[in-house]
Design brief:
2 copies of one chain form a homodimer. The first copy, chain A, is of the alpha/beta class. In chain A, about 30% of the residues lie in helices and about 15% in strands.
């Protein structure tokens, strides 16, 4: 039996699951599959105590670092996240930030007078994507009309469709100095925390721009402010920050080389229908005994 | 013989033309082909008086409204502009502005605190392009990865490659209320001046955004401010304004729904190599007696 918690977070989900049809129950000993639509690790822990026979938990988010850090991802349960499901809006936002930085739109938006012609084109740029999941694949798809050289760094070296080169993350120090545009799409894990620290930010080109649509803590934010102030890099577009929300008075607000968007690459209006599709598909697969989409590897933490 | 004025405006052009090889001369009675790299209509008029045997003038700009308004486009001379040559950077800038407006980046750039998740995706949008020249064709190419419905309005009804529909400009009143995104790419002529006036801006959807990378005066700027203030449209991204430069203190600066870039869709760094390619090609064709690229129709004014 399937339980959706809280069912109010997913308008229309009951009608969707009724179409399969999926047997639905209240949270309890009958629950075999738990759709965890909204709620933090502590609430989830309590829910799992009330539903000891759960075999599968579907998380409603793509980045599950909070649940991994809370030590939840084990106990003989199959975990799935929404990873990949929100790739379309997130990749679009990443490209919007890349173009905004290259065209210096943050500076233009704050200007109160005509300025000199400035700005760079994405054509001819070398784009380094850190992370080889759904967002990277979708961003590469959006980049197909541009003349760009794309390099994807990922854990495995299986080639990513649409990338000119796919390399292991160990090539980061070699690739950073070559990139005009660096986009972070990788999950936050103990291995990726502060992946871009002061040393690595210092390896970037002074005319390069950095876009983060993954998790704020993949970048050492303190080092990033230093790099921006020193002109070590040309600009940063951050949809994710560390901490979140970014506090008022933080130097990133209104920094001439920075643009912060408040974790809004995928708004609830954008994710809700995409999550509903993913859930319906996974419930169908769960009931049919088929492999699920977005399975989490507890050892990797994503 | 070919004359380039001023030759300093096009670094490397002499070497390029020497490769053809093209016979070069100072401005005078020997000049048959005049490459007008930089300078306004009055200087050009004076130059033509000194070179009475000119058969062909290549203008260094894509939008030649200033020369047309000065009454220069006649007198048995073949006129060519750079139209189409700068389409790549201009279309890119147009898309950057579209995405910036949909993702509300002007508001984010000015924010000094975390905000609520807001923003819209370009996927699923209906995009109306006014003008069917090189910029429109290139913008359609950049839009190919998106799920968008594209309509091009142009003078002729010959289908534009990549557009879902090509319609005559007379369909404007019918199409404006349907568009989520309106992009102006059309030349400024007596017919397109204030094409978007108060009446037509009032026909747009309140959630629609307008991007102008063509000429400022295609929009009635006074009416546009009114439409933005009233919420008749959701946002405007203007790379061109009327007048230019947009004066300090103008309400468009820092208007919460507007983003102004100072006619910088194609910076000199971007256009110089593209113009050099166009000139080299047209000089080659002129000497070979072949049809030129970017021929201007004096009656149409572009």
């Amino acid at each position: 039996l399937i339980t959706v918690v809280p069912v109010e977070a997913l308008p229309g989900i009951e009608e969707r699951l009724a179409r399969i049809p999926a047997p639905i129950c209240e949270l309890g000993t009958a629950t075999r599959g738990l759709i965890w639509a909204d709620g933090g690790p502590e609430e989830l822990q309590m829910a799992l105590e009330r539903a000891p026979n759960v075999e599968w938990v579907q998380l409603g988010v793509a980045g599950i670092d909070r649940y991994a850090e809370a030590g939840l991802l084990d106990g003989g349960i199959t975990w799935t996240s929404a990873k990949g499901a929100f790739a379309e809006p997130v990749a679009e936002h990443a490209l919007a930030l890349v173009l905004a930085l290259l065209r210096e739109l943050p500076m233009r938006a704050r200007a109160t007078r005509w300025g000199a012609p400035r700005g760079r084109s994405l054509h001819g740029a070398r784009v380094l994507l850190i992370g080889g999941g759904g967002i990277a694949i979708e961003l590469l798809r959006l980049l197909t009309p541009w003349r760009v050289e794309t390099v994807v760094l990922r854990r495995s070296t299986a080639p990513i469709p649409g990338a000119n080169r796919t390399m292991p993350i160990e090539a980061l120090d070699e690739q950073l100095p070559l990139a005009d545009v660096v986009v972070l799409t990788t999950p936050l894990t103990p291995q990726t925390r502060h992946l871009l620290d002061a040393r690595r930010l210092g390896m970037m080109r002074p005319d390069a721009v950095l876009v983060n649509v993954a998790r704020g803590a993949i970048v050492d934010m303190h080092a990033l402010i230093g790099a921006l102030d020193a002109g070590t890099i040309a600009g940063a577009g951050l949809d994710v920050t560390d901490p979140e929300p970014l506090p008022e008075g933080h130097p990133f607000w209104a920094h001439p080389r920075a643009l912060v968007t408040p974790h809004t690459a995928d708004t609830p209006e954008m994710t809700r229908p995409l999550l509903a599709v993913r859930i319906e598909e996974n419930v169908r697969r769960f009931l049919a005994g088929e492999p699920l989409e977005g399975i989490v590897d507890p050892l990797l933490g994503y």
